[in-house]
Write a structure and sequence with these properties.
By secondary structure, the chain is α+β, with helices and mostly antiparallel strands. Helix content is 26%, strand content 25%. Helix 1 runs parallel beside helix 6 and helix 5 runs antiparallel to helix 7. The longest helix has 24 residues.
Length: 306
């Protein structure tokens, strides 16, 4: 079966690898254009584009699927399109090109967390279980009928990055199984059922920690925004980046945002019990262990995160 693969970030690469390894004829890859990365803003291919180049697969770079891109997709004559975190909408004209349609691997248990940041929003919300589904792409936002589902337990120390990494590999297996069933004429998609929740793309503001919230909510948010856009707070009007915090329910009572040492641990007060800082990156400096940063503060007890 001839497959068009659409994807952009690193979490889509395992699916591309799995389809190739399973013997599917991946005739082209649709991915977003090269983007400037790093301090020098060097134009860099997406992870999917880089892997497609290694595999010798034709690459269609597009920030938007317009008429010209749709024509290039049609010229590749795919029987089906597999899409994993491409990062753009697929219009009706392009959806109609493959005879088996577009099959999307989405990292949530739909209809929960429809949108661009399902794993991140799931962690912030405190879900105990998440997963991935394959579904038939429609013009609506992640509304199509579901072919297959897998579940994944959320571990207490999971960050969005770690959870997405696991789901990218298990999801690649699910996607390959779904396409194999489609090729064999044995696939059956069923309508989504259950409560709908939305997962819009995270902004920088989503990473700001509100120390008036309970420690559990702060911990969930910090894990959900790691590695991107990252957790942060402000100190003396400057943004300070933080890695995920640890819950310290037996810690001393502290006002929200106020810091204190407990042995070698650096604690911060919240709306409930304290949390422990792990690593911190002050403005203009490198990320460092919280204990190392604390030694540089004249009087840590006078420090208050805003």
């Amino acid at each position: 079966m001839r497959v068009l693969f659409a994807g952009t970030p690193a979490v889509a690469v395992p699916s591309l690898n799995a389809l190739v390894a399973a013997g599917f004829d991946v005739v082209a890859v649709l991915t977003r254009p090269d983007a400037p990365l790093g301090r020098k803003r060097v134009l860099t291919p997406s992870p999917v584009a880089a892997r497609a180049a290694e595999l010798g697969i034709e690459i269609i770079h597009a920030a938007k699927v317009d008429a010209d891109v749709t024509a290039r997709i049609a010229a590749a004559a795919p029987d089906v399109a597999a899409i994993v975190a491409y990062g753009g909408l697929i219009p009706r004209a392009a959806l109609d090109v493959p005879r088996h349609g577009w099959i999307n691997l989405h990292f949530s248990l739909l209809p929960a967390w429809r949108g661009a940041a399902p794993v991140q929003r799931s962690l912030i919300a405190g879900d105990d279980v998440t997963g991935a589904v394959t579904f038939l792409l429609e013009e609506g936002l992640d509304t199509g009928p579901v072919f297959g589902t897998l579940t994944e337990a959320v571990l207490p120390d999971d960050t969005a990055g770690a959870l997405l990494e696991r789901l990218s590999h298990s999801g690649a297996v699910l996607l390959t199984q779904t396409l194999s069933a489609v090729d064999a004429g044995k696939a059956a998609a069923v309508p989504q059922t259950g409560d709908v929740s939305l997962a819009p793309k995270l902004t920088l503001e989503d990473g700001r920690l509100d120390w008036n919230q309970p420690a559990l909510a702060i911990g969930r948010r910090a894990r959900g925004v790691t590695p991107e856009p990252g957790a942060w707070t402000t100190l003396d009007g400057q943004r300070v980046k933080l890695e995920p915090v640890l819950l310290r329910p037996g810690g001393p009572a502290l006002e929200p945002g106020r810091l204190a040492l407990d042995g070698k641990s650096v604690l911060v007060g919240t709306g409930s019990h304290p949390v422990e800082l792990t690593r911190i990156q002050p403005s203009g400096k490198k990320m460092m262990a919280a204990a190392d940063w604390a030694r540089g503060q004249a009087t840590l007890e006078s420090v208050v995160f805003e």
